[in-house]
Amino acid sequence: MFGLKTDWHPDVPQRSFTLESYEGGVARWCPSCGDHGILSAVQRICRDEQIPPEQVVAVSGIGCSGRFPHYMHAYGFHSLHGRALPVACGIKVRRPDLQIWVATGDGDCCSIGAGHWLHAVRYNMDMTVMLLDNSVYGLTKKQTSPTTPVGLATNTHPEGAWLPPLNVVETVLGFTNISFVAKTVDWNPAHMYQTLHAAYCHRGLSFVQILQRCPTYTPHIFDEWRGNPDSIRLLVHEDGVPADPPVAKMYRNHVEHDPSDLDRARQLAADAERIPIGLLYRNPDAPRYEDFTARGLGMPTDEKLAALDRELDRFAI
Ligand code: SF4
Ligand code: MG
């Protein structure tokens, strides 16, 4: 009647997202801090992949990197010192559909959070973990961190740090059930973008160490690598991080590296003088813990309660 067509549907416009869609509060990191570029790279990836902001979660611990979720227009969790990874795993357990970005620091992840680091990597839940490594505790004004180079004067070692620093990627490559380990530098935005994009596309826990400039407390620690690109080894392979022509031209020291070769990855990572950037290791077949924890997620409430009752009945005496 009235000539209405029954197959009519409202014309809902398709949503599209711009960089502004992911911009949160005004970033209050120091001017020229490398964290600004890392934030931009993540926002660009979200825009390029057209991820709805409500599907994105940024998780952090404590430190300068801990501010990261405040500057993303997305869900966020600024957690406790060293606890970004267990919080991120908890979110993934209940909401495996969300895209999780973890921002952690060298002090946050490799010191107080080291126990969680080891196990989160082993759980291999699908998320991108960015270690913003400025080789110092920045937020608390320059204490020695696990990656502080020998000789750097800090508030806790005024005459210079004297223990050998932790080699982050070499350490991760010794963990169990690793699935994606990469390294990049914040002063090369093109390489950093490609590395983080590859990390995002990988299904499993992608761990990316980012050498991050801290002009306030460690302004010169990367001078050698920044001033002499030949001291950096650019890892290239058809299964690795794609190198844009300007990046490939800048870093002439190319190393063909198959990221499925763990022994070679460990050898490359161990060379602290000629640091490798790119994808060190990838295993897409490593088991993911959320494939186990997601079981039963779609159950209606009454079925869940019945299943719980059945489980509890097993312990009735
Ligand atoms: Fe960045 Fe260093 Fe300032 Fe922290 S102290 S915001 S790491 S420049
Ligand atoms: Mg730090």
Task: Write up what this structure looks like.
This protein has 317 residues and is of the alpha/beta class. The chain has a single domain, classed as Rossmann fold (3-Layer(aba) Sandwich). The protein is 31% helix and 16% strand. It is built from eleven helices and nine strands. The chain has a nine-stranded mixed beta sheet with strand order 2-1-3-4-6-5-9-7-8, with helices on both faces. It starts with 33 loop residues before the first helix and ends with a helix. The model has no long low-confidence stretch (mean pLDDT 95). Bound molecules: iron/sulfur cluster (SF4) and magnesium ion (MG).
Question: What is this structure's SSE topology?
Answer:
Blueprint: H1 34-48, E1 56-60, E2 75-78, H2 84-94, E3 99-105, H3 106-112, H4 114-123, E4 127-133, H5 168-172, E5 180-185, H6 189-201, E6 205-211, H7 223-227, E7 233-236, H8 245-250, E8 254-256, H9 262-270, E9 276-282, H10 290-293, H11 301-313
Parallel strand pairs: 1-2, 1-3, 3-4, 4-6, 5-6, 7-8, 7-9
Antiparallel strand pairs: 5-9
Helix pairs in contact: 1-6, 3-4
Supply the key terms.
317 residues, alpha/beta, Rossmann fold, 9-stranded mixed β-sheet, 11 helices, 9 strands, 31% helix, globular, binds iron/sulfur cluster, binds magnesium ion
